[in-house]
Amino acid sequence: MSNLPPEPVDPPGVPDSVDWDAFLGGRAPGEDAPEAAPVAAAPVAPLPSRRTVRGSHIGGTRSGRRTQLAPPREKRSRRGAWGCLIVLLVLVGLAAGAAAFLQGPIAQLVASVQGPADYTGTGEKKVVFMIHDGETGQDIAQALTDQDVVKSFDAFYDLLLKESPAPVFQPGAYQLSAKMSARAALDALVDPANKLKQTVVVPEGTAAVDVLQLISEGTSLPLADLTAAAADLASFGLPAEATSLEGFLFPATYTFPPGVSAHDAVKTLVDRQFTALDDAGVAPADRWRTVVLASLIQREAGLAPDFYKVSRVFLNRLDPVQWESGLLQSDATVAYGTGKTDLVTTTDAERADAGNGYNTYVHPGLPVGPISNPGDLAIDAALHPADGSWLFFVTWNLDTGETIFSTTADEHEAAVVKWQAWMKEHPEYG
User: Fold this and answer.
1) Are residues 159 and 37 in contact, defined by beta-carbon separation less than 8 angstroms?
2) pLDDT score recorded for residue 117
3) Which residues does the annotation list for site: Important for catalytic activity (predicted)?
4) Which residues pair with 394 in a beta bridge?
5) Which of 107-111, 171-175, 411-415 has the lowest mean pLDDT?
6) pLDDT tens digits, residue range 380-411?
7) Rounded-to-integer distance, Cα 166 and Cα 37, Å
8) pLDDT exceeds cutoff 80 at 1
9) What whole-number distance in Å separates Cα of residue 238 and Cα of residue 231?
């Protein structure tokens, strides 16, 4: 997620080229006694190297009354008993420490014997899985894991490495299931019967240029035809402010009829976005502003509840009483303006470029247009922001998407320090 750094300068301690996407967005009784394949239409060969698995009362009864006839007993010292107890406690502590120290190595040993975590069987509910042109075996393994088709990256990728000859994957949509074994998932992906014809999956937050590529991959429509159709803006009924289809290609799964034209395929997505806006209660006159704001939220937010908080941060920054400059300072908008639709990281020079109309570090208010195609959740968050006085946010854990929202610059700087510490422990995120 992008960062909304403190106004007017970047937070101290942040490098010149930083993932601002992360900034926003975006732990003995008694006496004294002496654990740690390129894809597309070609075989996955050579396959990249294997990814490591991330990742493991002592007591008794009171004596009866002694009679006067019993001989007097010598009083025994309790020092020996306390000493034994202390030694016992020390031994228990040492055992616990040893167990904790060996927990990691033992877990690794068990994992090496049992193999990577994997589901069994052919899965549960049906899901549509997309293979995109140019993806590698690692890309497919990660996407399968992200969609919970397979249980772990290694379960699928290790199997893929052992296959001979190397599997050939074709770009397009496939009918799979959630929670499949790696073997079942691989068999399904190489079975032509599971390839869905004329089917396209458009994820939330995908930029228009990439949506057209997805439509081409899932259908028989040439990308050039789709690009030409998308340029005919007047035929789609877009708001007067629109200079492209950006923001109005609703993210969903589509199955087109055989022989569909490029124009009709694109119009299907536009009409679906209008339906989503109507269902959300957005008047036609408000479509433009709603889609622009929702597109930022879609790119910046991670966890579902945070969509509404991110919406509030942007709206608070648009309020001159709370944020005098009116600068949203979103790196996602800057990156979009540079043509890097797949990134949310920027450089000092890019953030200073006033020629970029999407540069919200220089130009106050909302950007000149949408920066992605938002879904229902982002649209709802744009219309119903959470209550709060937040002006900053930083996604400090990029694995879980956990985000810290702050009202003051000091609070935000502390959150940034937490994010930086997490990044040092996870160098794979760069």
Assistant:
1) no
2) 94
3) 300
4) 404
5) 107-111
6) 999 999 999 999 999 899 888 899 999 999 99
7) 8
8) no
9) 12
The per-residue pLDDT for 81 is 60
Q: Per-residue pLDDT for 26 more than 80?
A: no
Buried b or exposed e, range 148-157, using 16+ CB within 10 angstroms: ebbbbbbbbb
Taking residue 178's Cβ as centre, other Cβ atoms within 10 Å add up to 14
pLDDT in tens, 257-296: 999 999 999 999 999 999 999 999 999 999 999 999 999 9
Q: How far apart are CA 173 and CA 197, in angstroms?
A: 8
Q: Any idea how long the chain is?
A: 430
Burial class from Cβ neighbours inside 10 Å (0-12, 13-18, 19+) for residue 412 reads: buried
Decide if pLDDT at 32 tops 60. Answer: no
Structure tokens at 300: 């910046």
Structural contact between residues 313 and 24, judged by C-beta atoms closer than 8 angstroms: yes
CA angle 231, 235, 238 (to 5 degrees): 85
CA distances from 333 to 292, 308, 345, 372, 377 (A): 11, 19, 10, 10, 19
Within 10 angstroms of residue 359's Cβ, the number of other Cβ atoms is 26
User: Does the pLDDT of residue 122 top 50, yes or no?
Assistant: yes
Going from the N-terminus, what domains does the chain have, and what CATH number goes with each?
A: 125-194 (3.30.1490.480), 202-280 (no CATH), 286-429 (no CATH)
Q: Phi/psi class of residue 401: alpha, beta or left (left: φ > 0; alpha: ψ in -120 to 50)?
A: left
pLDDT tens-place string over residues 324-382: 999 999 999 999 999 988 777 789 999 999 999 999 999 999 999 999 999 999 999 99
Question: Which residues pair with residue 397 across a beta bridge?
Answer: 402
